[in-house]
Structure formats: C-alpha cells, structure tokens
Amino acid sequence: MIETIPNNVDLANDKRLQRALLHWQPGFLEWWREVGPAGFQEDRIYLRTAVGVSEGDWAVWDTVKMPDYRWGIFLARPRKEESIYFGDNIGGKLWDQVPGEFRKELRRLIVTQGDTEPASVEQQRLLGKCAPSLYDLRNLFQINVEEGRHLWAMVYLLHSYFGAAGREEAEELLERRSGHEDHPRILQAFNKPIGDWLAMFCFTMFTDRDGKFQLASLAESAFDPLARSTRFMLTEEAFHLSVGEAGISRVIRRTAELMAEGTDPHAVGAIPLEVIQKYITEWCSACYDLFGGEDSSNAASYFAAGLKGRYRESDSNIYPDHEALEEAYNLKVHVNGQWSTREIPMRRAMNACLLDAYLKDCHRALNKWNALLEQAGLPERLFLPSTRFNRHLGVFAGQTFDFEGNPVTQDEFDAGLHGWLPAAEDYKLVRESMVAVYEPGKMANWIAPPQRGVGGKPLDFEYVQFH
Ligand SMILES: [Fe+2]
Ligand SMILES: [Fe+2]
C-alpha cells in the first residue's frame, strides 16, 4: 500500500513514517467508507489526483473509484525566504523541527485545521443523492477526496513531528464525527449537516474560504513543514472555492433569468432571490466567528512566536512593519448605547486583520453576483451581513445588531430574524427543488449550466460512470 502513496517527502526511505501510516491508513479507509459520500463508492469518477508540486503539471486526471483514490503527501517547494520574517524572531532560521516551547500550540493549530477536513466530508455525505448534474456530482466528489488528502497532510505533520502524542491525535481525527453528541468536531460550524446544494455552494464559498485564509496564515509559519504543507493545500483549495462562487453565480443566473421573463422562480422549482440572500447571510455570518475574537491574546502570541502570519505576510509592500508592535487596529464598537473606536494593539488584532482580508474577497464575489442581476435588468441586489450581525464570539458577542450592524433590542432582533436568516419553510422550499439529474449534460431546473466542463472535458461528458 505504501508504494502507491504519491509523495515528495521521501516516504520510501522513511521507515518511521511508513510504520505510522501503515497503522493509520486502514482506519482512514474505514472512516471513508463509513461516513464518506453515501453511495457511489463503486462508481467510477473522473477525478484529479495530486502527484507532484511543479506548477502546471501537479495533478493527473483519471477515472477511478473513490476508495481507490491515491491520497498523497506533498510539501510545496521551499520558500524564497530562509529566515523568519515576522514577529519576535525576525532573522532567525526557519524551523525544520518543532521548537519545544511551541509544541503544544503548534499541535493545537494543526489538529484544529486537520479536524475541519474530514468534518466537511461528513457534512456533505448525503448530497450526491440529489446532485443537479453529473458535472456537479463530480465536483462534490473531487472536493471530498481532496479534503481527505488535506487530512493526510495534517496527519503527516502529526506523525512526523509530534511523536506519540501526534499519533494519538491522528487517531482521534478519525474518531470525532460531525454533529456527534459525545464526540463532535472541534469547531461548531463543522457540526451542522449541509442539507442541500445551495448550502453546499455557500459552504464552499464562505466556510472553505475561511479555510483558505486560515491556511494562508499558516503558510507564513516559521515552522517550515507546516508552511509548505498548507501552501500546497491552497492549490487544491482554489478549486473548492471556485465551485462555491460559481455555484452561487449559476443559481443567481437561473433565478434572474426567470424573474426577468416574469416567471416566479418558486413556481417552476427554482429558488427565489430572497431565499438565496438568506442562505448567504446564514453562511457568511457563521464564518465571521471562525476567525476568532477581534481582540485576542492568543492571536498576539501566535504572531509573536511566528506560528501564524497575516494574509500574505511575506509581502513587504502590504506590510512595511513585520513586527507589528507600533500600530493599532481601530474597531468601531458600541458600548452602553454609544459608538466609539477601540484601539486594539496590532498584534492582538490579527484575527480582525484576517477577517478583513476575507471580507474583501467575499465582496469581490458579491459584486460579480450583483452584476448578473444588473445584466438581467433587475433592480434587486444582494448584500453581505455586517460583521456585527449574529455573532457568538468576539467583541460583538452578547449584543444584538441588525443585518446592517445597527444596534437593536433583543425583541427587534428576534422579530427581524425571520427576514434575515432562512426559516423552516425556506429550507423546505430549497429541499423540494433538489432533484437528482444524472443524465450527462443535463441540469436541474434551479441552476444554470456552467460556462464549460472540467478537466479538459466537455460539459456533456460522463463524469460519473455508474456501476
Ligand atoms: Fe481542505
Ligand atoms: Fe476545501
């Protein structure tokens, strides 16, 4: 089995890693069969597999059964920097081993990241049964197998650098379950099932995008194997994000098309624009919490130690000051009925900085979606919720703000909630639209076709060959 694992970490000559993986791999496959995609395990799927790290030809495309997918282990090529470039240890050599004093923190960061990867596979496991097209079904499975590989990437770090404690964590990554009462996944957003494809597109647009920014901040880490593992994960992650962004675009395009011709989308099994808005609000606002508190001592110590950097920290044009000791981050807060500005020392505001980078990216996508509405000649527009809306963590937790971020009373908030977030009847309506379409080239009625096929194949290619 070991010989078939694609890698660039010299696995063939690393007896210790071989032993650890031989022990772990059967459990992984068992996990995949138990809570990976429900059904479809015997079908042949047109999938890409990472086989190297050189730009342009890092992957091969093949028609394979998912349990036979070759999950590999890759480190991106070395960075151009050889020394630490932010925090307290600027100029020190990058670490190729884990420094004793940061063992616990690094392990926690890796386990928390690693836990989200299998969690998302579990959350998405039922979606194949109502895929809007073979193209989308294939994309779902591509994402699933690559999240599986991301779990491998984190397990590689745990096995190679964290001894017995790391091996134990690697086992536990296969034992926790999304939504399980007694042993749930670590982060709350990864414990709710993704019940329909609009939610799937919102998840890959917003939640996976949070993942992109978390990975990007780890990709700056002074711990070089972590930085290079996460850098390569971002290569695959780009596709997941594009599935989400383009998926929402396609739903909007279909709805806008119907509205423009005067047809009620709901009447023909498509999704009303206000329901799309509510889904966007639900998933986007849930992700704000994933960044952690805006004012955080943990964030400050991660930065000081060189464990996590800002988004594109290495770029000195963006960050002239990599120590971040002098500046402050200004956050508008509302305390005792008064607006004021809280000055957060920059290092303590690293989560807020990362959230800002995320929001900028989300707004870029939002502008594209609104351009679709404009092109259809419609006056309606979509919006992103304020970062103060519906928060359970951070500076705004425990306060009530409306969608735009204006302070409201608890009663006003409760009364408004129905208009902001999906209610039972909205979920029901979306679920009723979800019908499986498995004929090559055909699409469900609630979603527009993509511009083109994937992996060099036409849109009407048989991306999934049923057994
Ligand atoms: Fe991932
Ligand atoms: Fe992903």
Quick recap:
With 467 residues, the protein is mainly α.
Question: Can you walk through the features of this model?
Answer:
It is a single chain. The chain has helices at 15-35, 103-123, 134-161, 163-175, 197-218, 224-260, 273-290, 297-305, 350-375, 410-420, 424-433; strands spanning 44-50, 59-65, 328-335, 338-345, 464-465. It is mainly alpha-helical. Helix 1 (15-35) packs parallel to helix 4 (163-175). The protein has a single domain (2-465), classed as Ribonucleotide Reductase, subunit A (Orthogonal Bundle). It is built from 11 helices and 5 strands. Strand 3 and strand 4 form a beta hairpin. The strands form 2 sheets. It has a 3-stranded antiparallel β-sheet with strand order 2-1-5. Helix content is 46%, strand content 7%. The mean pLDDT is 97.
Approximately what portion of the residues adopt beta-strand conformation?
5-15%
Within the largest sheet, what's the order of strands? 2-1-5
Please tally the β strands and state the result: 5
- N-to-C series of helices and strands: HEEHHHHHHHEEHHHE
Counting helices, strands and paired strands, the structural category is mainly alpha
Give the tally of structural domains.
Answer: 1
Mean of pLDDT: 97
Number of helices: 11
Roughly what percent helix?
40-55%
Low-confidence stretches: none
* CATH homologous superfamily placement: Ribonucleotide Reductase, subunit A
* Name of the level-1 CATH class: Mainly Alpha
User: How much is the radius of gyration in Å?
Assistant: 23 Å
Query: In this structure, how is the largest beta sheet organized?
Result: 3 strands, antiparallel
Between the first and last Cα atoms, what is the distance in angstroms? 25 Å
